[in-house]
Amino acid sequence: MKYSWYFSVYGTGLGHISRSLWLASKLEGNKYFSTWGEALKLASSYPSFRATPLDVVWTEEGRMSLKKTFRRFYRAFSSLALQIREELNNINRVNPSAVISDSRISPLIASMMTGKRSVLIINQPRVLLPLRKGIYVALERAFGELLGLIWDLAEVIVVPDLPPPYTISAYSLNLKTIEKKIVHAGFFADPPKEEARCRDAGQKTVFVPISGPPPTKDIVLKLIRKASESLPDGYRVLVSLGDYDKRGYRYDNGRLSIVGWDENRQNNMLCSDVLVLRGGLTTIGEGILYGKPMIVMPISLHGEQEQNARRVAELGLGLYADQYRTKPDDLAWMIQDVLGNDRYRSNARRLMRIARLQNTAERVKSMLENIAYGNSS
Q: Residue 344: which residues within 8 A CB-CB, separation 6 or more?
């Protein structure tokens, strides 16, 4: 049987598209993508459709603006209606074996309307509010269960995370409406397959792959620049800006190296001694698969990333860092503390072994082919 797969991917940041492209590389048959923004550029090697963007509002200071997002809530309904129309047209045009939604509502609704079976890839079915007390928790729960009714349209809900008790996105998954459909499949990334070719033998290497919406990146870059100056001799800091439009950009002063787009991510991960990350699940999962201790600095007011960062700390994999309260000297101290404490390294290696036993690619491929087979009957 020849398969065709329609991927409809949330387009902000790099995490969603990275894991969807990883999954596409494991599947046989034709693949099509619907997304927007940076993700659309990365999906250009496949036939792709430009989708209407649907996102929260970001401030120039790198925060998620809840106030402005809620003020523009009516626009979200308009964008969602446009997305549903686009997805209907795309699905009818492609006639896929199955529809794969990465964190998007519109393809699930369009799949139901066209009679196609769908699979949902998601690690945040419940929107976590940054103020986690009193009425806010009740509102978060109520809205989450309401949203869960739409997520439940999917045949299977695949969570690209470890099973309990090691789940990083545990706080986001607590929804009664979807709990019976959730499958913890493991991280959507490959462990290293070759030996590292490390440039600076004897030096301690800090790898900082910055991801997220453009307004949120500057604050991390400024902080890591100053922190690199506070580190003692023998440290090297490598920053990837995660900007596809800046391919070829390079800066190196001997202590701090910056690249616009990382063409050697696997090698840089392998050669690093510690990671400084945002709180996205895809990059955290990649760090775990490589057995690296980490410092996680979530986007301010981004509930999911903040809870992911706290889970990393709870599991003893590294430290949580607040992007506004952490000063350059604090970050330099954190880097040295994580590298000087064998507990973090030992926990990272232990979880790495668990993550590598998940057989994620084969499990998810088998699920999707079974669903596609049902679609064709």
A: 293, 316, 317, 318, 338
Per-residue pLDDT for 132 more than 60?
no
Compute CA distances 212 → 64, 132, 217, 219, 315, whole Å.
11, 23, 7, 12, 24
User: What's the pLDDT tens digit per position in 53-78?
Assistant: 987 656 655 555 556 665 666 677 88
180, with CB counted inside 10 A (0-12, 13-18, 19+), is: exposed
Segment 355-375 shows an average pLDDT of 93
So what's the pLDDT on residue 288? 98
Predicted confidence (pLDDT) at residue 23 exceeds the cutoff of 80: yes
Question: What is the average pLDDT value for the chain, to the nearest integer?
Answer: 90
Can the peptide bond before residue 165 be classed as cis, meaning omega within 30 degrees of 0?
A: yes
pTM of the model: 0.91
Q: What's the number of CA atoms in the CB half-sphere (13 Å) around residue 66?
A: 11
256: its two tokens: 């701090």
Over range 194-222, report the average pLDDT: 82
User: CATH top-level class for 4-186+358-376?
Assistant: alpha beta
Contact 97, 117 (CB under 8 A): no
Measuring CA to CA, how many Å separate 181 from each of 157, 317, 370? 6, 29, 15
Phi-psi region at 300: left, alpha or beta (left = phi > 0; alpha = psi -120 to 50): beta
**Nearest C-alpha neighbor of 46 from the set 78, 22, 66:** 22
Every domain range in the chain assigned CATH 3.40.50.2000 = 4-186+358-376, 204-356
Which element (helix H / strand E) includes 221? Answer: helix 218-230
Predicted local confidence at residue 376, as pLDDT: 44
- One of 3.40.50.720, 3.40.50.300, 3.40.50.2000, 3.30.300.130 is the CATH number of 204-356, namely 3.40.50.2000
Helices and strands of the chain, counted as H and E runs: 13, 16
